[in-house]
Amino acid sequence: MCGIVGYVGPGDAVPIILGGLKRLEYRGYDSAGLAVLENAHIELRRGAGKLDQLERLVLERPLSGHVGIGHTRWATHGEPNERNAHPHIGMTGDVVVVHNGIVENFLELRAELQAEGAEFKSDTDTETIVHLLERQLAGGQSLVEAARAAFKLLKGAQAIVAFSRTEPDRLVACRIGNAGGVVLGVGEDEMYVASDIPAILEHTRRLVFLESRQMAMVTADGYSVETLDGKPAELPIQVISWDPVSAEKGEYKHFMQKEIFEQPRALTDTIRGRVDFESRQVYLPDLNLTEDRARSLSKVVTVACGTSYYSGLVGKAIIERIARLPVEVAIGSEFRYADPILDASMAVLAITQSGETVDTLAAMEEAGDKQALVWSIVNAVGSQAMRQADGCIPMHAGPEIGVASTKAFTTSIIDQYLLACSLAQLRGTQDPDTLAAYVDDLARLPDLVGGVLDHDAEYQSLAYELYQYDNFLYLGRGINYPIALEGALKLKELSYIHAEGYPAGEMKHGPIALLDENMPVLAIAIQDGVYDKMISQVEQARARGAVVIAVATGGDKLIADKADHVLYVPPTPALLSPVVNVLPLQLLAYHIAVWRGADVDQPRNLAKSVTVE
Ligand code: AGP
Predict the structure, then answer these.
(1) Is 490 one of the catalytic residues?
(2) Which residue, by CA, sits nearest to atom 4 of ligand 1?
(3) Are 131 and 113 in contact (CB under 8 A)?
(4) Which helix (H) or strand (E) holds 399?
(5) What percent of the chain has pLDDT over 90?
(6) If you measure from the C-alpha of residue 608 to the centroid of ligand 1, how many angstroms do you get, rounded to a whole number?
(7) What one-character DSSP code corresponds to residue 210?
(8) 153 C-alpha to center of ligand 1: Å?
(9) What are phi and psi of 37, to 5 degrees?
(10) What is the distance between the alpha carbons of residues 265 and 446, in angstroms, rounded to a whole number?
(11) Is the dihedral of CA 382, 386, 392, 393 positive or negative?
C-alpha cells in the first residue's frame, strides 16, 4: 500500500515528488524517501516517520535534479526505519529503486545474490530488486534489458520504479499482478509516474494505466510500453475529469470528516444518469448486461473486504428482496483459497473502493477462471477492479482519502440497490408497481442523509461522554446487523478501542456475559420488523448496568425511556435504512477519535488500499 512518485523532465524533481507523496500519504506513512540524479550522482534522502520528516531532511540538505523517484511506505518486510526506507540503492550507486508489493521469493534471491558477493544493507525484500538490476547492468545490459531480466525473476505482485545514472534521461516502471497501480502522467515535454492518480492530477489529466506484466520506459519526450517478454504494448491515454481540489480537505479538519459530509452529493452522483424517475427505469450501461444473460443467472456471489464486505452483506438483503435472486457474500481473503463452486450461471460481484485490494482482485480472477460473470462496484477511476471486470458500476463518490471508508460504503450500498432494480427489470422477477415504488424511494435519500448530518453537534457532545471507554458492543438485526459490524469497525480503526458488532439475537448465547457498566452498548433499534426484539435487547443490556445508546426512528417516545441516549434518524424505507442508520455511527466514531487525539486520516498500522496479502 505504499505511495510511489517519479518524474523526468526539465523541472526540478524534488518539489514535484514531495507534493505527489503528500497526496499519496494515505497509502502508507511509516517512512518516506526520495532520490534524484544530481551531477551524474544519485542523491538520496530518507527517514522513518511521516512525510514531514522527509521534508525536514530535504530542507537541511537540499538537492535537485531532473530525474527522480520518491516513496512513502507501509512496512511489510523490515521495521519502519531509515535503512529500510525506500528508495533503495545498491553497492555500485548506479541504480535506485522504489517498490510497492511483496517479492515472495526474496529470501532465495537474497541468498543467491549474497553468494555472488552482494552486500545487503536493509531487511527489505525490495533491496533484492536493486542487486538484481546491478547484476544485469554489470553484465553490460541496458536499463530496459536489465529491468526485463531482473523483474521476470520476481514472484508475487509488484509495482516498481527505478532509474540508473548510466542512462540519466529515463525512468523504468513496471507492474506485476495487483500491488497497487502504476500510472504514467503525460505532460508537455515531461513525464510523471505514480502509484495513484492524486499524485499526478495537478500536473496533467492525461494518464496511462499499466497492466500486469507490463513495463514502461519513460523519458521527458514520452514513453514506450512493452510486456516483460519484450513485446510492444499499446495503451490508451485516458483523460481524468475530477479535479485535484476534490482531493483536498477544504474547510474540514480531516478528510474523513469532509467525506462524511460529502455523502448527500456522493449519493446524488451515484444515482445521477442511472434512474429515470418518470419511467421508473434503472440504467447501468457499464454493466454490459443483456436481458438473456440476466435471465440466465442463478446466483450472485459478492466478494469484498472490510467495510466493503459489510456493504455486501447489506446488498444481499436488497438484491434478494428486489430482484428475487439468491446472493452469497464472501470475504475476499477467504474466497480466493476456498476453491469456490462457480460456473457460467453465476455472477461474482466485487465491491472495492480502491479497486486495488489484492484479495478482492484475486477473487475476481478466480471467478473469471471458473467462467462466472465478473462485476465490480468500484470508486477509484482507472483501477484494476474497474478494468478487470466484465461489467462495472462506478461509485462516482469522488476521491476517498480518509483511511476509514465512509462515502464509498454508502454509495456502494446504493449501487447494489440500483443493480437489484436493474436485475428485477431485466429478469421480470418483481411486480412492476412494487419495483416502481422501490425506484421512487431513492429520490429522497440524499435529503434524508443530509438531515441526519445536521445533528453533528449532538454526536460530538455524546462522543465526549463516551470517548474514555475501552470496550463497546454494537447490536443490530436483519439488514442493520451489518451496520452494527460497520459501526464497530469505524470505532476500532479510528480510536483503537475494542468494539464488536454482533447480531442482537445472539447476545443471550454468550456475549451478554460481557455486559456491565464498563461496556457501552450501541443498539440500532429503529421501528422496523424487529423493533420489539431490539427493545427487549436494550432492556436486557440496561438491566446489567450497560450504558445504552440507541439509533431510533424520529418520534419514537418509548425508546427514550429505555435507552440512556437516543440518536434519532428520520423514517426511511427499510431497504435504504442502513444508509441512514450508519451516519450517526460514522460521526460518533469520528468525534470519539478526535476527543482521543487519534490520527483520524492515517490511523496506525493501516493504509487506504491493502495491496498486500
Ligand atoms: C474501511 O474503513 C477500512 N479502511 C477497510 O476495511 C477497507 O474497507 C478494506 O480494506 C477494503 O478496501 P476496498 O474497499 O478499497 O477494497
Answers:
(1) no
(2) 404
(3) yes
(4) none
(5) 84
(6) 7
(7) P
(8) 31
(9) -90, 115
(10) 7
(11) negative
- Is 2 among the residues known to form the active site? yes
Task: Please give the C-alpha separations between residue 518 and each of 514, 562, 574, in angstroms, as whole numbers.
Answer: 9, 18, 32
Q: In the numeric block, which cell numbers belong to residue 104?
A: 515472495
Query: Which residues approach ligand 1 with their CB closer than 6 A?
Result: 305-308, 352-354, 357, 360, 403-405, 493, 609-610
Query: How many angstroms does the Cα of residue 216 sit away from the middle of ligand 1?
Result: 29
Atom of ligand 1 nearest to the CA of 354: 15
Q: What percent of the chain has pLDDT over 70?
A: 97
Question: Is 95 exposed, middle or buried, given 0-12, 13-18 or 19+ CB atoms closer than 10 A?
Answer: buried
Nearest residue (CA) to ligand 1, atom 8? 307
Nearest CA to ligand 1 atom 10: 306
The pTM for the full model equals: 0.75
Sequence-ordered list of residues with C-beta below 8 angstroms from that of 77, at least 6 positions apart, any chain = 84, 102, 106, 123, 124, 125, 126
Instruction: For residue 529, give the H/E element and its range.
Output: none
For range 40-63, the mean pLDDT: 92
Q: For a ligand 1 pocket test, name from 255, 303, 307 the mutation site with the most ligand atoms within 8 angstroms of its C-beta.
A: 307
> Is there a contact between 416 and 318 (Cβ–Cβ < 8 Å)?
yes
Closest ligand 1 atom to residue 306 Cα is 6
Ligand 1 atom with least separation from CA of 403: 4
- Please report, as a single letter, which amino acid is at residue 355: G
In angstroms and rounded to an integer, the radius of gyration of the C-alpha atoms of the chain is 25
Q: Is 335 exposed, middle or buried (0-12, 13-18, 19+ CB in 10 A)?
A: buried
> What is the bridge-based pairing of β-strands 471-476 and 498-503?
parallel
What is the per-residue pLDDT across 353-389, written as a single tens digit (0 to 9) for each?
999 999 999 999 999 999 999 999 999 987 899 989 9
CB-CB neighbours of 436 under 10 Å: 16
